[in-house]
Amino acid sequence: MKKLLLVISSIALTSSVFAQSRMAAGVTMHPTTVPMRAEKVSRTELATEGIPLKDVSVPSVAANFNPVTTVFAGMTETILNQTLYDLQSNRGIGKRITNNGNGTLSAVYTYIPTSGASADRGSGYSYFDGNNWTSTTTRIEYKRTGFTNISQSNGTEYVLAHSGDSGLFLSYRPVGTGAWNYVHPVGTYNLYSGQADVWSRLAVGGSNGMTVHAIVNSQGTGTSPVLGQNGPLTYSRSLDGGLTWDKDHILLPFSDSSYYLGFSAENYHIDARGDVIAVVAGGFEQDIALWKSTDNGNNWTKTVVKAFPIPLYDAATSISDTSGDGVADTIEVGSEDVTVSIDANGICHVAFGRMFLLDDVVADPSSYFPTTDGLFYWNENMTPGSPVIVAMTEDLNGNGFIDLPTPVAPNTQPLGLYGTAGMITHPSIGFDSGNNVYLSYAAPNELADTSVFQCAHRHTFVIASMDNGATWTTPYNIVPMSTSTPPGDGEYQEGVYGSITRDVEGVGASATADIVYQRDGAPYVSAVFGTAPDPTTTVGTQQLWNQTNNVPYPNDIVVARVTGILTGVKENTHNVQLAVAPNPATDYIYVSFELAKSEDISFELTDVLGKVAMSTDLGTLNAGKVTQHVDISKLPEGAYMYTISSSSFRSTGKLIIK
């Protein structure tokens, strides 16, 4: 369990730890930030597998659903299906859509038909034959499953889900047609005492396209450690399409109890391209790391993408003290929604949301800040341990604020809580045939109408890069608003859990990206098919609020086909080359940077709680190299974040004043 601290981090940070010794009570937030809420409340984990489910009566709705397609400017949208189960993932996003390489697509989603009950939960399936979508009206599996993902190779598609009570459930068949074949369980289910395989991820590869790779949390909601960990991440491999498993629930190198206390539900992801396999896992209270194999899973190397500064950190026995001075530090971490994709050159690309952790009481749960902003990106051509922020929530109405509504009881949060996610979450990565990078994610949309459901609405956006992640296009909102042609209803909708095809069709300006996501009329999830919500917890109150306002309305499973993403204006929004010296400083600093064009520039210093300590308008500066002198002699000692910004970019860093 983790507490929540609602405080905004509206600027990107390049450093990761801030001492708390100079924090003052009653700090007023900067007016350009999201309003701060003072209370700390416990978070109930989203995972419910292993907990008896309560069937809830819902109005009978016709089970048959015909996909509905609408054409918008630059995008075609199809509502594939409707589901009464609206928790597609506890944290990160699995592969839920594949480009089959012949003009066809396959998509899956955790599904309960609108006339169903909790026992009907399983993998829903939709298929695009190059012209039209068709969708199932029953689950793929013959028993109750959940949290599905899909992969395909050599004309065969594979769907992996968990059964909750008896291991992983693999279904496979020729792409788009015929009866499903089943492997259940995957590997040996009772290999370890207390084993409970839940929340799996799937990739298919190998030189002959027949190798199935699966990773899974092999403890789930169990109370006793498995393999010495609370949530070991185990790896299994089949060289014959799932029939036999030569690697059966093993731990990847350097992932055992010497390195990790365990992993959370779905804070990991896997991809495969031929014999290259990539697994990424971690975040929040641990390193985010990449495991890579270039020989089809026989041997692995490990790279730490973002380090956690306290090895084997345990919130139950310690505080977040990184320097050993007895004072808790606020630590910049990942938000556990990690994803990885392998490009055509075998290079791994990783993305995850940005978060902060603070644990200031021994034997008390750690806290996190759900209005933290920012999306991290990293690839193997970059320095290990140095991910960069490539997206932040947009100030769409231009008022200088990121506007979040004031929650209405019983809801206690201004935006839906998806795991330990901040403002931006659910990244997913794809590549076109020119190896350009596409990155989808969910972020609050200020233009959404929150008058009915007084909670910020996230929409799914997509950006692209033609230079290996150095610069990115402006975000494209794939949830149509009422100003679209024809009008959409996105201002009344939450659009999350986006998954993009790893292989984007076409190249450059003519490329088409396919993204499947879930859309409904209220943020977060309901508790209809789970246990009754606990009104004393944050998640419980959000579920109760959602259920009161939005249930039993079904949730749309939507696929957007978006073209022209790379025609968006290119920006270097968060990666302007910026230097501040001296650092540490006492009386003055020199701020040096380079401008691509003449712009109005502002410089700002904020303390660790977001309070503005200094704000200076540097005026209109000419293109080229610029150095500005800034007087800081009147500021108290401590840690600050500096931000230089214009209408086209923002870049930040850490400054120590002595």
Helices, by number, come to 1
* CATH structural class of the largest domain: Mainly Beta
The second-level CATH architecture of the largest domain is 6 Propeller
What gap, in angstroms, lies between the N and C termini? 37 Å
Helix content: under 10%
What CATH calls the topology of the largest domain is Neuraminidase
Structural class call reads: mainly beta
Q: What average pLDDT do the residues reach?
A: 84
Low-confidence stretches: 6-63, 569-575
Largest sheet: 9 strands, mixed
Q: Quick one: overall form?
A: globular
Total number of distinct structural domains: 2
Beta-strand proportion: 35-45%
Radius of gyration: 24 Å
Number of strands: 43
Summarize the helices and strands and which ones pair or pack.
Blueprint: E1 2-6, E2 17-19, E3 37-43, E4 68-72, E5 75-83, E6 97-99, E7 105-111, E8 122-128, E9 133-135, E10 146-153, E11 156-162, E12 168-174, E13 181-183, E14 198-205, E15 211-217, E16 233-238, E17 247-251, E18 268-273, E19 276-282, E20 288-293, E21 301-306, E22 329-334, E23 339-342, E24 348-358, E25 367-368, E26 375-379, E27 388-391, E28 425-431, E29 437-444, E30 458-465, E31 472-473, E32 476-477, E33 494-500, E34 512-520, H1 538-550, E35 555-563, E36 570-571, E37 578-581, E38 588-595, E39 599-606, E40 612-621, E41 624-631, E42 638-645, E43 650-657
Can you tell me about this structure?
This protein has 658 residues and is mainly beta. The chain has two domains: 68-571, Neuraminidase; 576-658, Immunoglobulin-like (Sandwich). Helices cover 2% and strands 40% of the residues. Strands 1, 2, 3, 22, 23, 24, 25, 26 and 27 form a nine-stranded mixed sheet that branches. Strands 4-5-35-34-33 form a five-stranded antiparallel sheet, with no helix packed on it. Residues 6-63 and 569-575 have low confidence and may be disordered.
